Amino acid sequence: MRGLRCWLLALLATLLGGEGAESQPIQAGNLHLLTTEEHKLVLNRPMKVLPRDCHEMLMSSSGQARDGVYLIQPGRFPILAWCAMQEGGWTVVQHITVNSSVNFDRTWAEYKQGFGSLTGDHWLGNQHLHELTQGPGRYKLGVKLVDKDAVTKAGEYDPCLVEDEGSAYRLRLGLYQGTALDALTQDTENYLHDNQRFTTKDRDNDNYFQNCAKLEFQGVAGGGWWYDACAGANLNRRNVIYWQRDCNKEHLCKYAWMMVKPSESVKLVHSGECKKDEL
Ligand SMILES: [Ca+2]
Question: How many A from CA of 172 to the centre of ligand 1?
Fold first, then answer.
Protein backbone atom coordinates (compact mmCIF):
# COMPACT_ATOMS: atom_id res chain seq x y z
CA MET A 1 0.00 0.00 0.00
CA ARG A 2 2.83 2.36 0.92
CA GLY A 3 4.58 1.47 -2.32
CA LEU A 4 1.47 2.38 -4.30
CA ARG A 5 1.20 5.74 -2.51
CA CYS A 6 4.82 6.54 -3.28
CA TRP A 7 4.27 5.59 -6.87
CA LEU A 8 1.17 7.80 -7.13
CA LEU A 9 3.02 10.75 -5.57
CA ALA A 10 5.92 10.27 -7.97
CA LEU A 11 3.49 10.12 -10.89
CA LEU A 12 1.74 13.29 -9.70
CA ALA A 13 5.07 15.11 -9.31
CA THR A 14 6.09 14.06 -12.81
CA LEU A 15 2.79 15.19 -14.28
CA LEU A 16 2.85 18.54 -12.50
CA GLY A 17 6.53 19.04 -13.26
CA GLY A 18 5.88 18.07 -16.86
CA GLU A 19 3.09 20.57 -17.24
CA GLY A 20 5.25 23.38 -15.94
CA ALA A 21 8.19 22.38 -18.06
CA GLU A 22 6.17 22.15 -21.28
CA SER A 23 5.54 25.89 -21.20
CA GLN A 24 9.22 26.67 -20.63
CA PRO A 25 11.45 27.13 -23.68
CA ILE A 26 14.05 24.38 -24.04
CA GLN A 27 17.55 25.49 -23.15
CA ALA A 28 20.02 23.58 -25.27
CA GLY A 29 23.19 24.46 -27.13
CA ASN A 30 22.08 22.58 -30.23
CA LEU A 31 18.39 23.41 -30.44
CA HIS A 32 18.89 23.91 -34.20
CA LEU A 33 18.85 20.09 -34.58
CA LEU A 34 15.09 20.05 -33.91
CA THR A 35 12.25 21.93 -35.57
CA THR A 36 9.91 23.91 -33.30
CA GLU A 37 7.21 21.26 -33.79
CA GLU A 38 9.66 18.60 -32.62
CA HIS A 39 10.28 20.28 -29.24
CA LYS A 40 7.42 18.24 -27.79
CA LEU A 41 9.41 15.09 -28.59
CA VAL A 42 11.99 15.82 -25.89
CA LEU A 43 11.28 13.06 -23.40
CA ASN A 44 12.90 14.32 -20.19
CA ARG A 45 11.96 17.99 -20.24
CA PRO A 46 10.79 18.10 -16.59
CA MET A 47 14.14 16.87 -15.25
CA LYS A 48 15.85 19.46 -13.07
CA VAL A 49 19.21 17.73 -12.89
CA LEU A 50 20.14 16.48 -16.32
CA PRO A 51 22.02 13.24 -17.01
CA ARG A 52 25.47 13.66 -18.57
CA ASP A 53 24.63 11.18 -21.34
CA CYS A 54 21.99 8.73 -22.53
CA HIS A 55 23.42 5.85 -20.52
CA GLU A 56 23.02 7.80 -17.28
CA MET A 57 19.47 8.67 -18.34
CA LEU A 58 18.72 4.98 -18.89
CA MET A 59 20.19 4.04 -15.52
CA SER A 60 18.22 6.75 -13.69
CA SER A 61 15.01 5.40 -15.24
CA SER A 62 15.86 1.88 -14.04
CA GLY A 63 16.12 0.80 -17.63
CA GLN A 64 12.64 2.04 -18.56
CA ALA A 65 13.57 5.01 -20.78
CA ARG A 66 12.65 4.52 -24.43
CA ASP A 67 14.44 5.53 -27.63
CA GLY A 68 14.13 9.20 -28.49
CA VAL A 69 15.38 12.74 -27.96
CA TYR A 70 16.65 13.68 -24.50
CA LEU A 71 18.30 16.65 -22.84
CA ILE A 72 21.75 15.71 -21.58
CA GLN A 73 24.57 17.78 -20.13
CA PRO A 74 28.04 16.45 -20.90
CA GLY A 75 29.69 19.89 -20.51
CA ARG A 76 28.78 23.36 -19.28
CA PHE A 77 25.52 23.61 -21.23
CA PRO A 78 22.65 21.21 -21.89
CA ILE A 79 22.34 19.71 -25.35
CA LEU A 80 19.82 17.50 -27.09
CA ALA A 81 20.72 14.05 -28.36
CA TRP A 82 19.05 10.97 -29.79
CA CYS A 83 19.32 8.14 -27.28
CA ALA A 84 19.39 4.53 -28.48
CA MET A 85 18.03 3.11 -25.24
CA GLN A 86 16.98 -0.32 -26.49
CA GLU A 87 20.58 -0.99 -27.51
CA GLY A 88 21.87 -0.17 -24.03
CA GLY A 89 21.84 3.62 -23.63
CA TRP A 90 24.05 4.86 -26.43
CA THR A 91 24.26 8.59 -27.19
CA VAL A 92 24.02 8.82 -30.98
CA VAL A 93 26.62 11.23 -32.39
CA GLN A 94 26.10 10.54 -36.10
CA HIS A 95 23.41 9.03 -38.28
CA ILE A 96 23.33 8.92 -42.07
CA THR A 97 21.06 7.40 -44.68
CA VAL A 98 22.59 6.87 -48.10
CA ASN A 99 21.66 9.72 -50.45
CA SER A 100 20.43 11.65 -47.45
CA SER A 101 18.69 14.97 -47.99
CA VAL A 102 20.94 16.33 -45.24
CA ASN A 103 24.08 17.85 -46.69
CA PHE A 104 27.23 16.55 -44.96
CA ASP A 105 29.57 18.83 -46.98
CA ARG A 106 29.87 21.41 -44.18
CA THR A 107 32.27 23.88 -42.63
CA TRP A 108 34.41 23.53 -39.52
CA ALA A 109 31.92 25.65 -37.54
CA GLU A 110 29.01 23.45 -38.64
CA TYR A 111 30.81 20.22 -37.75
CA LYS A 112 31.74 21.80 -34.42
CA GLN A 113 28.16 22.68 -33.43
CA GLY A 114 26.32 19.90 -35.27
CA PHE A 115 23.85 19.86 -38.14
CA GLY A 116 20.94 17.91 -39.59
CA SER A 117 17.97 16.60 -37.64
CA LEU A 118 18.16 14.60 -34.40
CA THR A 119 15.13 12.59 -35.53
CA GLY A 120 16.93 11.71 -38.78
CA ASP A 121 20.36 12.16 -40.31
CA HIS A 122 22.72 14.35 -38.32
CA TRP A 123 26.13 15.09 -36.86
CA LEU A 124 25.83 15.88 -33.16
CA GLY A 125 28.86 18.18 -33.19
CA ASN A 126 32.58 17.78 -32.55
CA GLN A 127 32.46 20.02 -29.48
CA HIS A 128 29.79 17.81 -27.91
CA LEU A 129 31.67 14.68 -28.97
CA HIS A 130 34.70 16.08 -27.17
CA GLU A 131 32.73 16.93 -24.03
CA LEU A 132 31.07 13.52 -23.94
CA THR A 133 34.22 11.45 -24.44
CA GLN A 134 36.54 13.43 -22.16
CA GLY A 135 34.67 11.95 -19.20
CA PRO A 136 34.90 11.74 -16.18
CA GLY A 137 35.49 8.08 -16.90
CA ARG A 138 36.31 6.32 -20.12
CA TYR A 139 34.01 6.26 -23.11
CA LYS A 140 33.70 3.86 -26.01
CA LEU A 141 32.67 4.46 -29.61
CA GLY A 142 30.08 2.24 -31.28
CA VAL A 143 29.59 1.94 -35.03
CA LYS A 144 26.58 0.29 -36.64
CA LEU A 145 26.21 -0.36 -40.37
CA VAL A 146 23.20 -1.70 -42.27
CA ASP A 147 23.70 -2.77 -45.88
CA LYS A 148 21.18 -2.73 -48.74
CA ASP A 149 20.05 -6.28 -47.85
CA ALA A 150 19.38 -5.19 -44.24
CA VAL A 151 22.40 -7.10 -42.90
CA THR A 152 23.67 -5.32 -39.78
CA LYS A 153 27.31 -5.17 -38.72
CA ALA A 154 28.61 -3.42 -35.66
CA GLY A 155 31.76 -2.74 -33.70
CA GLU A 156 33.16 -0.91 -30.68
CA TYR A 157 36.36 0.97 -29.96
CA ASP A 158 37.17 1.04 -26.27
CA PRO A 159 38.26 3.56 -25.14
CA CYS A 160 37.44 6.50 -27.41
CA LEU A 161 38.41 10.12 -26.96
CA VAL A 162 37.84 13.09 -29.25
CA GLU A 163 40.33 15.75 -28.17
CA ASP A 164 39.48 19.46 -27.89
CA GLU A 165 39.28 22.05 -30.66
CA GLY A 166 42.85 23.20 -29.96
CA SER A 167 43.93 19.68 -31.01
CA ALA A 168 41.58 19.84 -34.04
CA TYR A 169 39.28 17.25 -32.42
CA ARG A 170 41.89 14.52 -32.85
CA LEU A 171 40.45 10.99 -32.62
CA ARG A 172 42.00 8.56 -30.12
CA LEU A 173 40.80 4.97 -30.20
CA GLY A 174 41.55 1.85 -28.20
CA LEU A 175 40.90 -1.83 -28.78
CA TYR A 176 38.35 -2.91 -31.35
CA GLN A 177 35.84 -5.72 -31.32
CA GLY A 178 32.84 -6.38 -33.51
CA THR A 179 31.32 -8.06 -36.53
CA ALA A 180 32.29 -5.22 -38.88
CA LEU A 181 35.88 -4.78 -40.02
CA ASP A 182 38.08 -2.49 -37.97
CA ALA A 183 38.29 0.39 -40.43
CA LEU A 184 39.63 3.06 -38.07
CA THR A 185 42.65 1.58 -36.28
CA GLN A 186 43.73 -0.99 -38.91
CA ASP A 187 45.49 0.32 -41.98
CA THR A 188 44.49 -2.47 -44.40
CA GLU A 189 43.49 0.17 -46.97
CA ASN A 190 46.76 2.02 -46.24
CA TYR A 191 44.90 4.72 -44.37
CA LEU A 192 44.73 5.06 -40.62
CA HIS A 193 42.05 7.19 -38.95
CA ASP A 194 43.02 6.71 -35.33
CA ASN A 195 45.09 9.70 -34.09
CA GLN A 196 44.08 11.90 -37.03
CA ARG A 197 42.81 15.42 -36.66
CA PHE A 198 39.44 16.43 -38.08
CA THR A 199 39.33 17.99 -41.56
CA THR A 200 36.53 19.99 -43.17
CA LYS A 201 36.33 21.74 -46.54
CA ASP A 202 37.51 24.98 -44.92
CA ARG A 203 40.14 23.46 -42.58
CA ASP A 204 42.68 21.03 -44.01
CA ASN A 205 44.35 18.96 -41.26
CA ASP A 206 44.84 15.78 -43.33
CA ASN A 207 47.95 14.11 -44.73
CA TYR A 208 47.15 14.57 -48.42
CA PHE A 209 48.51 17.32 -50.68
CA GLN A 210 44.94 18.44 -51.32
CA ASN A 211 41.99 18.68 -48.93
CA CYS A 212 40.38 15.23 -48.57
CA ALA A 213 37.04 16.75 -47.49
CA LYS A 214 36.79 18.49 -50.87
CA LEU A 215 37.52 15.43 -53.03
CA GLU A 216 34.39 14.47 -54.92
CA PHE A 217 33.00 11.09 -55.94
CA GLN A 218 30.20 11.34 -58.50
CA GLY A 219 29.89 15.02 -57.69
CA VAL A 220 29.58 14.62 -53.91
CA ALA A 221 32.34 15.87 -51.63
CA GLY A 222 33.68 13.67 -48.83
CA GLY A 223 32.53 15.90 -45.97
CA GLY A 224 34.26 16.35 -42.64
CA TRP A 225 36.20 13.38 -41.23
CA TRP A 226 39.37 12.26 -39.44
CA TYR A 227 41.16 11.82 -42.77
CA ASP A 228 44.59 10.36 -43.30
CA ALA A 229 45.59 10.75 -46.99
CA CYS A 230 42.56 10.08 -47.42
CA ALA A 231 40.27 7.28 -46.20
CA GLY A 232 39.71 3.60 -45.41
CA ALA A 233 36.38 4.65 -43.94
CA ASN A 234 34.21 7.71 -44.20
CA LEU A 235 30.67 7.66 -42.86
CA ASN A 236 30.01 11.28 -43.85
CA ARG A 237 30.07 10.91 -47.64
CA ARG A 238 26.42 11.23 -48.49
CA ASN A 239 26.30 9.10 -51.65
CA VAL A 240 28.57 6.22 -50.57
CA ILE A 241 28.77 5.16 -46.93
CA TYR A 242 32.32 3.83 -46.77
CA TRP A 243 33.71 1.27 -44.32
CA GLN A 244 36.46 -0.70 -46.08
CA ARG A 245 35.02 -3.94 -47.51
CA ASP A 246 31.82 -3.76 -45.43
CA CYS A 247 30.39 -0.64 -47.09
CA ASN A 248 31.59 0.83 -50.37
CA LYS A 249 30.51 1.60 -53.92
CA GLU A 250 30.30 -2.12 -54.81
CA HIS A 251 28.69 -3.18 -51.55
CA LEU A 252 26.22 -0.43 -50.76
CA CYS A 253 25.18 0.34 -47.23
CA LYS A 254 21.96 2.08 -46.48
CA TYR A 255 22.47 3.36 -42.94
CA ALA A 256 25.26 4.10 -40.49
CA TRP A 257 25.33 5.24 -36.88
CA MET A 258 28.13 6.38 -34.60
CA MET A 259 27.44 6.50 -30.89
CA VAL A 260 29.19 6.78 -27.55
CA LYS A 261 28.68 5.26 -24.13
CA PRO A 262 30.73 4.91 -20.94
CA SER A 263 33.05 1.91 -20.89
CA GLU A 264 31.89 -0.68 -18.39
CA SER A 265 33.69 0.02 -15.14
CA VAL A 266 33.58 -3.65 -14.19
CA LYS A 267 34.04 -6.12 -17.00
CA LEU A 268 32.70 -9.64 -16.81
CA VAL A 269 35.61 -11.76 -17.90
CA HIS A 270 34.92 -15.36 -18.80
CA SER A 271 37.53 -17.90 -17.81
CA GLY A 272 38.15 -18.72 -21.49
CA GLU A 273 39.13 -15.12 -22.19
CA CYS A 274 41.42 -15.10 -19.14
CA LYS A 275 43.37 -18.02 -20.53
CA LYS A 276 43.66 -16.23 -23.84
CA ASP A 277 45.04 -13.15 -22.11
CA GLU A 278 47.68 -15.19 -20.32
CA LEU A 279 49.08 -16.66 -23.52
CA1 LIG B 1 45.80 18.18 -47.07
Answer: 20
